[in-house]
Design a protein that fits this description.
This protein is an alpha+beta fold. It is built from two helices and seven strands; from the N terminus they run E-E-E-E-H-E-E-E-H.
Amino acid sequence: MKVVGAIIHNDANEILCALRSGTMSLPNLWEFPGGKIEEGEQPKETLRREIQEELGCDIEVFDLVEDTTYDYGNIIINLLTYHARIVAGKPVPAEHAALLWLSVTSLQSLVWAPADIPAVQRLMAAHTEVAEPA
């Protein structure tokens, strides 16, 4: 199943993390919000639609961060994560149990859904490269 996730940055350079609710598959794990790509949709279109449905805000979608395939045993997920930012509205969780803005350096403090971990690792590695003096 092809799905997309938005790595939404705010002006403080924090990233929006979403806690899966107890009624969702993989309950109580953190993820980048997003959802399933519908037939005929492009990934960036899906992200804009899903974020509007799940969080009630509009986003601008930028570059692909990570393309991960993960086998959960009962389903294989191909997750495409993209950088994004909110252009209208304020995120409110309609499906998730909680939302949290965290700095890149704090991302590892959460327990992530396995398919999201490679994107978290890529963000942290890129942040480390930028933070270190030349």
